[in-house]
Protein 1
Amino acid sequence: MWPLSFSGQGEIYHEGRVRAVVPPSRASKGLEDVVIGETRISYVGGATGELDYRGFDVRTLVPGVPYESIVHLLLWGEPPSEDPSPEVVRALGEARAPPATAERVADALPRETPPLEALRTILSSLGDGRAEYPPDLPQGFALIARTPVLLARFVRRSHGLAPVPPRTDLSHAANYLWMLTGEEPSAERMRALEGYLGLLADHGMNASTFALRVAISTQSDLVSAATAALATLKGPLHGGAPSRVSDMLDAIGSPETAEAWIAERLARHERLFGFGHRAYKTEDPRGVVLHRMARSVADPERFRLAEEVEKVALEALRRARPGARLYTNVEFYSAVVLEAVGLPRTLFTPTFAVARTVGWVAHALEQASDNRLLRPEVEYVGPPSGRTWPRPVDRV
Ligand code: ACO
């Protein structure tokens, strides 16, 4: 029989007597409010609903500033001399053609592999052991440029279609859509995708960026760290939410059924995707811009449904979790915008990764520029030391 019991008050009992008292926990569950370092890349104002890239409010950048110029700003800290950044256009164009080994990996994956899982393997294959720590800008541009190229190649193959070669005369966003469809995107779709990529490019110490910084802090290479970041982005509490928002809108079906559907879900203590955020206890500024973008690009009926679901969900969440300060997060209208861009749901989170790669690169460079191993502590709350193995141990 298990000889120890725990009182729940920190006391540990053995044979009816208190044997140890564990002091109150020092643990910060979820690392909430724990500051792990300094950054000059982006500022997240959770209480005020602000997001700045290098001092520029994203709401003043998107829509309008090309993604290449946002990449320039995030990587070099200053805006380019003109838009789109000539340096970034050149660097991404030169790095766009991936190595043949990575193409072979993309082509060898089973067709039915979901694109997110495929991208994780493909990203990993970009790390061939030649580009070691510390990360540098050429490695960063290669990662940013090749992620959508290889993803699109895999998606074409998985549909039994021949890959479309990348073009250097198209922007990052337009080339991604071109390689997926073999058609030049309309200006409207292109602008919507470009706005989405710009808004999602960086976001403080989010979970995937944290995973990347932990990996870089061990002096691991950029591709390995980005693979860790992508694995972290996958979860529905982080980047895996937008396809679930679309599923939720489908399941609700019409504005009239929203209230009952949401009430039932909350009664089962299930979460509503696209709501709540660890940092924002007010409106997510990216969500505000995406909402406006969705109004102009989405199918009007879909947009009306989304707005009604949002309204009903916010009211229901305020009733069900009065103290929680839950608002619409970036993923809610991301889903509506990405639908309007024409992407399938399986590409929502991979496209988030396409947007965030620049943030990961910027953070990898920043971490490496003043590195210290990220290695937190954990509080041990298991049985006290001094237990003996229940049978004789042969030590010879
Ligand atoms: N639906 C219902 N209840 C919610 C939601 C939600 N979307 N979000 C939070 N709550 C509730 C929690 O159940 C909790 O209530 P309880 O204390 O009664 O259990 C309370 O609000 C506080 O929630 P936490 O989990 O402590 O908040 P946390 O900061 O850890 O989580 C998170 C933030 C993970 C985003 C959460 O709000 C959530 O799960 N949202 C739904 C998934 C989602 O939209 N993910 C995308 C996030 S955006 C991004 O990462 C790019």
Protein 2
Amino acid sequence: MKEWEKNIRRVVPYTPGEQPRLPDMIKLNTNENPYPPAPGVRLALKEMEEESFRLYPDPAAGLLVEALAECYHRPKEQFFVGVGSDDVLAMAFLTFFYSEKPILFPDITYSFYPVWAELFGIPYERPALDEEFRIVKEDYVRENGGIIFPNPNAPTGLYMELEGVEEIIRKNPDVIVIVDEAYVDFAGPSAMELTDRYDNLLVVQTFSKSRSMAGMRIGFAVGNPRLIQYLNDVKYSFNSYTMSQAALELGAAALKDETYFQETVRRLVATRERTKKELHALGFRFPDSGANFIFATHERYPARELFDALKERHIYVRYFDAPRIDNYLRITIGTQEQMDALLAFLREYIGEKG
Ligand code: PMP
């Protein structure tokens, strides 16, 4: 090791999903939405003023914050925005997880959490999901420095009813509880309404999945105005202009079209439910996903081999070589046609292997 290497921060980074760009690929590996964003987004892009490029963006992201306030019928002081929910979550880790006590998150969950905890030097513990991949609420009632979990959880897709979420928040009044709702629009009610009653709750959402805007990198948090203030203080100590003006304008445009949003979510959920039936018929098992992906395993066909065979046909899904989940594939829900192509391949594969 070089002498200078002893004095630098060395980390094991998060591994994002592959982003191949093949003309004929079926991309079901990073939970993007197969449908385009609301038509108003393209229009707003066409009409974007030269100022949006030339000038620095509004550091308070007013346009987007106000559009969120209007869309979700809450005061704008309750919103914080960032460059995807990854940025919002990283800021939240930095701001709210500042205790000597360990923060808690599940053993199987979004694999960025341990990376941020390591990067920021936050101690953590990972209570195990039960055999059916459910979060065990009782494990979150002990001394801790904060709690974070996704709902629906990733990569399992399981959604916890709001009563369960509320119980965890209620039993932890002295720490911040972050509920990462990247996939909630495909599942059930958001915990957003609980922020009125619990000042220690931060709910984080994204435009990457249900609003088809992963490429624009837009995420947001909802919480008590004091929490939002603390988050902004940290953000302004890090980078005043996190989001581009283009992202602010296009994000605001996306929020204006509630009908399109509801319809896109409805179509995706319908395809998910159909895909579940077909996968089940082929002998796959999976938790009952409330997200835009299915986390599936087959007792006769190793996930790793299936993953490679699919990739050879340019069908990309996600495989995690991690304890307890190394025989599962996370399959993003695409269009009905894309899922039909995947299912046709699986039928053929299973037929061949017998
Ligand atoms: N949370 C969870 C649980 C996720 O799966 C993802 C997607 N990788 C994110 C947050 C981050 O998404 P984005 O930064 O695109 O908003």
